[in-house]
Amino acid sequence: MEVRIVPAAGPFDKDGSESSYFAYGIPGARSIRCAFDPMAADDAKCVGLPGRKDREDLSVSDEKTARRPSSVRAERRADMMEQILDTAEFLFSRNGLHGVTLKDVAKRIGVHHTLINYYFEDKKTLFDAVFARRAVITSERRMRLLDEYDKATGGRPSVEGALRVFLDSDLDLFIEGGEGWRNYGALGAQVANTPEWGAEMMDQHFDPVVLRLIGLLKKALPDCAEEDIFWGYHFVTGALMLTLAQTGRIDKLSGGLCKSSDYAAVKERMATFMAAGFLAVCERRKAERRT
Q: I need a surface site. Which of 101, 193, 219, 256 has the fewest CB within 10 A?
């Protein structure tokens, strides 16, 4: 079942930061769209669902009367869903999928666990919704910026330029987006390093944008062996995931000189460092082929 999170209008939508989100197609998330989205009242799929009176049964006067409480109810449900997703994101980012229960989420919010079950039938459904909520933002944001960069360069990108768009646009979310985005980054690092089920989630949400980056790198390095470009991306994403995990290891190794939470320092260095690696490997391989 596809999970698609659509950001509602919010004060930070332009740069992809915090907002409210509505989940579509999540198994067990009962009537979420109909309960959350006031515009869904006219959707035939919402007719007859609990807590919503069918529009066909409303007279003109009844409809005017019903709009206001319905809007308040939808707003409360949206707020509750946001709170559930934020809380679950925090807990999952620290304890992983198997270290959190729906009761843990409910306890931290201060509600009975049956309320969580009302929206999500099981923990994996909630986990998928948490991950998808921000994945769609970062993926679509990077895809749009990569397309714009390709067009701006007339189809002649540089290695560092392509990497800067791909990496910096993501790092900006973690720099500017607050605790929620940092929690998501740590969660993403867990997912990326869990082959049993995490690889499938990464494939689903990020393959298109990764392959878009690969395409730009191939343009920038037309004489480079294709496998070297893929290995280069492998090293890039490994460094990015370690950064997002915020393990604190570099803090200790450097005696406090560097901090794993310093995304601005990472942004300043990572694309340049990785671009040099791509160029060095490709040049060496070309020299080997000549001899």
A: 256
